[in-house]
Specification:
By secondary structure, this protein is an alpha+beta fold. It has a single domain, classed as Winged helix-like DNA-binding domain superfamily/Winged helix DNA-binding domain (Arc Repressor Mutant, subunit A). 41% of the residues lie in helices and 15% in strands. The strands form 3 sheets. The protein has a 3-stranded antiparallel sheet. A two-stranded antiparallel ribbon has the order 1-5. Helix 1 packs across helix 3 and helix 1 crosses helix 4. The longest helix is centred in the C-terminal third of the chain and has 26 residues. The protein starts with 28 loop residues before the first strand and ends in a 10-residue tail after the last helix. The N terminus is likely disordered.
Length: 164
């Protein structure tokens, strides 16, 4: 399959000779030279809650960061994230707007109607003071997480055994 052959899969849809599994489309789709789908696996009807929260948290941080430079409407948010990731992160509308509504309910963003650059009515989202605090805290968490993962991936030998 080529990159262009990837798309949204229906739950239970089979890909080639891979076994059929229940899928939900993950909030972030990675695009580029090698497209990968990161499905949320089900155990029965239960969604892995920790993985879902991890993905939601990732999405929230990306959206909050996009709003650091000022109010944006939905399309501008997705475009900014896509451009800053060198076209690696693609946010679909069906993922973006529920996340924006969730952030609005948490009072991390505020919204008001305005006119877009092409004179269309659009809802503009801005970062609140609480949203800025949340972004600062989550950024520190992400940096620590990325550093820990990098240490493991950069390892060239097994760790020394701990002595008691």
């Amino acid at each position: 399959m080529r990159d262009a052959d990837f798309g949204v899969l229906a739950v239970g849809e089979q890909i080639g000779d891979l076994p059929s599994i229940d899928l939900e489309v993950a909030p972030l789709a990675f695009i580029g030279e090698s497209v990968r789908c990161f499905p949320l696996q089900h155990e029965g009807n239960e969604l892995d809650a920790s993985r879902l929260e991890f993905l939601r948290g990732t999405l929230d941080v990306l959206i909050l960061k996009a709003l650091v430079w000022g109010p944006l409407h939905g399309y501008a948010i997705t475009n900014l994230i896509r451009r800053h990731s060198d076209d690696a992160l693609l946010l679909e509308e069906g993922t973006l707007y529920p996340a924006l509504w969730r952030l609005e309910r948490k009072k991390l963003v505020a919204a008001e109607w305005g006119l877009s650059e092409n004179n269309r009515k659009a809802k503009f989202y801005r970062l609140t003071a609480e949203g800025r605090r949340h972004l600062r805290n989550e950024t520190k968490t992400w940096e620590a997480y990325a550093q820990a993962v990098a240490k493991v991936l950069d390892a060239t030998q097994p760790p020394q055994e701990e002595t008691a």
